[in-house]
Amino acid sequence: MTRSPLPSPARIPLSVPLLLPGVRWTSALLLAALGAGTVRAARRLRAVPVLSMAASTDAGVPRAAGWRLLTAGGVEPDAATFLAACAHAEREGLRVLDLLPGDLPAERVLSLLRLVDPAGYRQDRLGEGRGAGFAVLVAEEVIARAGVDPAGPDATVAELMAVTRRVKEYAADATGLAIAPALSCGPPVDARGPARAAELRAQGLPPGALAAAQLAGLALLAGVAVRQGRWGAAAAGLYWIQPYLALGRRAAPLRPGDLARATAARPVRSLGAALRTAAATTRTPRSEAAATAHGPAAARDAEQDAVRAGAVQAYRADLAAGTDRFLEPRRPDCPWCGSGQLSVRVRVPDLLQGKPGRFTLEQCGACGHVFQNPRLSPEGLEFYYRDFYDGRGGEGAATVFGRLGAAYRGRAEMLRPHTDPVSWLDVGTGHGHFCNAARAVWPDTRFDGLDMGDGVREAERRGWVETGYQGQFPEFAVKLAGQYEVVSMYHYLEHTRDPLTELDAAAAVLAPGGYLTIELPDPESRMARLLGPAWLPWFQPQHQHLIPSSNLREALADRGFTVLAEEHGPAHQGNDFFGAVALTATRLAPDPDRPWGPPATTGRRALTGAVRLASLPCFAAAAVLDGLRTAAARRTDGGNAYRMLARKDER
Q1: DSSP letter for each residue of 154-179
Q2: What secondary structure letter does DSSP report for 100?
Q3: What is the 3-class SS of 507-544, one letter each residue?
Q4: Residue pair 138/68 in contact by the 8 Å Cβ criterion
Q5: How far apart are CA 133 and CA 164, in angstroms?
Q6: How far apart are CA 291 and CA 282, in angstroms?
Q7: Counting Cβ atoms within 10 Å, is residue 149 exposed (0-12), middle (13-18) or buried (19+)?
Q8: What are phi and psi of 565, to 5 degrees?
Q9: Is the Cβ–Cβ distance between 103 and 256 less than 8 Å?
Q10: Per DSSP, what are the bridge partners of residue 518?
Q11: Residue 59 phi/psi, 5° resolution?
């Protein structure tokens, strides 16, 4: 009996797997994703509370003092809605309440529900503030702390979205959503590309990338509808009627007035919106602002233009003097052990911001310590840190830090078996994101923060830290001696000029029996060799020292610490492949609007747009690989970072 030869892979149709002949898997996956999205939107909508129009009263007088209702142009809430919103906020202990008009357009409802899970929105202390952008109730004390300029009568939806996003930071666990049945969106909202792009930016979302992703998704749906028969038609059809399936069965109080039109014309409307947004992102920032600005918005745009022009002049002056002064002389020995057995580990330019310069990391053959050589001078540190965590890059950095909630909780949970801390100093706190998240784990702990940047003052205003210390940590060693039960240094030591001095300061600040917890990139990670210069944790030129865990253990022991725990897998940051793609894309096409670069041209913008579009599939593949890599790191305890917990010995 002879067997038929197996067909070669080239002869097997990719869309017809052997197990289920006839199933078009691209269409099936789209059906599953769209179906899950539809169910999720309907579930989330049911979780949004509805204002009770019978406002609570105190001796017959509604409690509305201390509240401001900010609205977009054309939105005119009645007194009953205002009082009902105040009563709801007081009852629920909220300080910010975004109101969803009863006639909110269908696509706006779906967009909001994709971004926000109402069931967990309030508990997500790091979650960004999201809202419909038509009306938001804010406590006056929050407005004062946030320094918000209340929107005027002609405020745009984008401006109100930006206000909601900001005030959420000052009411991290006291912000909510509610449907206001009697509230109307007012006149039709500007649907032009610049307006939509402005709304996306106000929510911290990249309009160009989202427009490209939307166009790619529509092209995929059209392709499967044409080429994959009934399965493809089913997927395209589900996308078409999704607004009705998600929102149509919802009884009043929220019933989009355009539901029928939005459903019937969804593919055409989505295509038009994506094209308009994509076109808007190709304009210069000033031309986009000019297309939508008026009144106070125009004044703010003019102020931003002046700031941008000043930044360009400052960078040009810095670069005119040359970049050699940003580096100190190369040292011939290891700063950790003094050995002269040095070799180059990696040379890499500034892939983070695309500023001029090339940087070298050398490794000690005796102890394995990796360090920047020559290292940045203080003047160089100022130049390369500028506009990264604050200023121009502050918003992007805050978005990244705001998405590390799971990592922050893991760091905080590491202390559970050992202590119930009363006082905690987070060194290198930035804007206080860790302290804000850790309050959910340790609600009775006093969290203070220390950092060089202005962000620590902002963290204090937000209430994310009780006290913010601004300056170099060793400068506070005497002042804060023996005052803290816990000191944390999360991805901080690698940024410092002298890590051993920083450890000395930590030992001084801790009370006897106190705990020091540290998290660092692991230079012994296999991914460091696999990805080479594109390994994100090299993070040049900011990271000046990458310390093997054995070296850190010895340094802690020398300072009277006993190491209690060390974690590698749980500390892994799932960004190896995604970061490599991002750094490579930035290297090929830097941001054309960066003030330290050459003047932006149409050609540069087109190149950047093309690279970003071409990199989308790479980012998708990288996300999958990072997911697999993270799962492996958790099982093998071999990630790209490590955490260490040590107790200061009592003497």
Answers
A1: T--HHHHHHHHHHHHHTSTTSEEEEE
A2: E
A3: HHHEEEEEEEEEEEECCCCHHHHHHHHHCHHHCCCCCC
A4: yes
A5: 8
A6: 13
A7: exposed
A8: -155, 150
A9: yes
A10: 489, 644
A11: 60, 35
Strand order in the sheet with 545-546: 342-349, 358-364, 370-372, 545-546
Contacts of 527 (CB under 8 A, 6+ apart): 535, 576, 629, 640
pLDDT of res. 213: 87
Handedness of CA 116, 121, 127, 129 (dihedral sign): positive
Average pLDDT for consecutive 10-residue bins of the chain (651 residues)?
39 38 77 95 93 60 79 92 95 96 94 94 92 95 88 82 95 95 88 89 88 90 92 94 86 80 93 90 50 47 66 88 91 97 96 93 98 96 91 80 88 96 97 95 97 93 96 96 97 96 98 97 94 96 97 97 95 94 92 88 84 87 94 88 95 69
C-alpha dihedral sign at 316, 318, 321, 325: negative
Q: Report residue 620 CA to chain centroid gap.
A: 17
What does DSSP assign to residue 43? H
Pseudo-torsion of CA 593, 599, 600, 604, nearest 10°? -110
In degrees and rounded to multiples of 5, residue 545 shows phi and psi of -145, 130
**pLDDT the model gives residue 485:** 98
Alpha-carbon torsion (495, 500, 502, 506), positive or negative: positive
* Cα gap 420→146, rounded to integer Å: 32
Q: What is the 8-class DSSP label of residue 422?
A: S
- Measure the CA–CA gap between 316 and 604, rounded to whole angstroms: 19
Cα(138)–Cα(143) distance, integer angstroms: 7
Residue 521: which residues within 8 A CB-CB, separation 6 or more? 491, 494, 537, 539, 543, 546, 640, 641
**pLDDT the model gives residue 303:** 58
Q: How far is CA 15 from the centre of its chain?
A: 36
Phi and psi angles of residue 634, each rounded to the nearest 5 degrees, phi first: -65, -35
Cα(121)–Cα(123) distance, rounded to whole angstroms?
Answer: 6
The whole-model pTM stands at 0.84
Report residue 477 as tokens: 């060693």
Q: Are strands 61-62 and 57-58 parallel, antiparallel or unpaired?
A: antiparallel
CA angle 608, 610, 611 (to 5 degrees): 65
**Per-residue pLDDT at 176:** 96
Position 264 scores a pLDDT of 93
Q: Are 181 and 102 in contact (CB under 8 A)?
A: yes
Query: Please, are residues 502 and 474 in contact by the beta-carbon 8 Å criterion?
Result: yes
DSSP letters of 334-379?
A: -TTT----EEEEEEEE-TTT--S-EEEEEEETTT--EEESSPBPHH
Residue 39's CB is within 10 A of a number of other CB atoms, namely 12
E strand or H helix that includes residue 643 = strand 641-648
**Pick from 536, 448, 534, 436: which is nearest to 486 by CA?**
448
50 strand-pairing partners = 179
Task: For residues 635 and 651, give the distance between their C-alpha atoms in angstroms, rounded to a whole number.
Answer: 38
Q: Which candidate, 73, 104, 75, places its Cα nearest to that of 178? A: 104
DSSP string across 596-621 = TSSPP-HHHHHHHHHHHHHHHHHHHH
Tell me which residue has tokens 């995604």. Answer: 578
- Name the token pair of 545: 């020292």
Specify the residue for token string 């490794």: 363
Distance CA 628, CA 206 (A): 26
Q: Where are the alpha helices (DSSP H) in 93-148?
A: 106-115, 118-121, 140-146
Please check whether residue 221 is in contact with residue 236, taking contact to mean a CB–CB distance below 8 angstroms. Answer: yes
Residue whose entry in the numeric block shows the structure tokens 């040379």: 347
